[in-house]
C-alpha cells in the first residue's frame, strides 16, 4: 500500500540522498528535526522499503578501467512471453553471476504491445560486448523462454552517464562517493 512522505520524511530522505552514510545527528542538525524523531523515522522508512541503500564500484574507464564500452540492449519478445513468465525466470535465477559480471542494469519494458528486456551491458570493447551478448545473454534467454521467443534485438552505444537514480549527476554534483556538500537541498528530489 502506498505511503506518502511527510515534510520531515522528505527532509530526512534528502540528507540520505546527499550522503547515505550520514549520521542521525547530522541529519537532525541539517533539518531541524529532533534527533530521536530522525532515528525513528529513518528506521520506519527503511523497514517500509521507501529508502534503499547500496554501493556500486565504478568499473568504467574513469573508474577501475575494467570496462571501456557500454551498450543498451533492447530485446523484444514474441507474443506469448508474459510479464509473469519473465518475473518467474528472474526469481529462479537471481544470482546468475555470469550475467552480473557484464550487466550494470536491467529492466522489463513494453514496446508496441510486446514485452522486452533492457540491459545495460559493459565490456572491454564493442566487440567484447557483442560477443558476451551472443554467447552468454541470448542463449540464456532462449533456454528460459524457448527458441522462437526473441523477436528483435537492437542496441545503442552508451557514451556517458548523466543522471542516476533521479538525483546523482556524476558530471555536476558528485565528489568522491557522495553528493557535493554545497548542492542545494531544493535540487534533491524526494517525492511530491
Keywords:
192 residues, alpha+beta, Arc Repressor Mutant, subunit A, Alpha-Beta Plaits, 2 domains, four-stranded antiparallel sheet, 6 strands
Overview of the structural elements:
The chain is of the alpha+beta class and 192 residues long. It folds into two domains: 7-55, Arc Repressor Mutant, subunit A (Orthogonal Bundle), CATH 1.10.10.10; 69-158, Alpha-Beta Plaits (2-Layer Sandwich). The protein is 35% helix and 21% strand. The strands form two sheets. Strands 2-3-1-4 form a four-stranded antiparallel beta sheet, with helices on one face. Helix 2 (24-31) packs across helix 3 (35-47). The longest helix has 20 residues, at 126-145. The radius of gyration is 20 Å and the shape is globular. The mean pLDDT is 93.
Corresponding CATH architecture of the largest domain: 2-Layer Sandwich
Q: How many strands appear in the DSSP assignment?
A: 6
CATH topology of the largest domain: Alpha-Beta Plaits
Number of helical regions? 6
Low-confidence stretches: none
What is the string of helix and strand elements?
A: HHHEHHEEHEEE
How many independent structural domains? 2
Provide mean pLDDT, rounded.
93
Radius of gyration from the alpha-carbon trace, in angstroms: 20 Å
Biggest pleated sheet? 4 strands, antiparallel
Just give the CATH class of the largest domain: Alpha Beta
> Based on CA inertia axes, which overall geometry fits?
globular
- Structural class given helices, strands, pairing? alpha+beta
Amino acid at each position: 500500500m502506498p505511503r506518502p512522505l511527510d515534510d520531515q520524511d522528505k527532509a530526512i530522505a534528502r540528507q540520505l540522498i546527499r550522503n547515505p552514510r550520514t549520521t542521525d545527528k547530522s541529519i537532525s542538525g541539517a533539518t531541524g528535526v529532533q534527533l530521536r524523531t530522525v532515528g525513528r523515522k529513518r528506521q520506519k522508512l527503511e523497514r517500509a522499503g521507501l529508502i534503499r541503500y547500496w554501493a556500486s564500484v565504478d568499473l568504467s574507464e574513469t573508474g577501475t578501467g575494467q570496462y571501456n564500452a557500454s551498450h543498451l540492449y533492447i530485446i523484444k519478445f514474441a507474443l506469448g512471453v508474459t510479464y509473469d513468465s519473465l518475473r518467474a525466470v528472474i526469481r529462479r535465477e537471481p544470482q546468475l553471476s555470469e550475467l552480473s559480471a557484464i550487466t550494470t542494469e536491467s529492466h522489463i519494458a513494453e514496446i508496441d504491445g510486446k514485452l522486452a528486456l533492457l540491459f545495460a551491458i559493459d565490456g572491454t570493447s564493442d566487440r567484447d560486448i557483442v560477443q558476451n551478448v551472443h554467447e552468454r545473454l541470448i542463449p540464456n534467454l532462449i533456454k528460459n523462454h524457448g527458441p522462437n521467443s526473441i523477436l528483435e534485438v537492437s542496441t545503442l552505444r552508451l557514451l556517458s552517464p548523466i543522471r542516476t537514480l533521479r538525483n546523482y549527476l556524476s558530471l555536476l554534483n558528485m565528489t568522491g562517493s557522495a553528493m557535493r556538500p554545497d548542492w542545494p537541498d531544493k535540487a534533491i528530489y524526494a517525492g511530491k
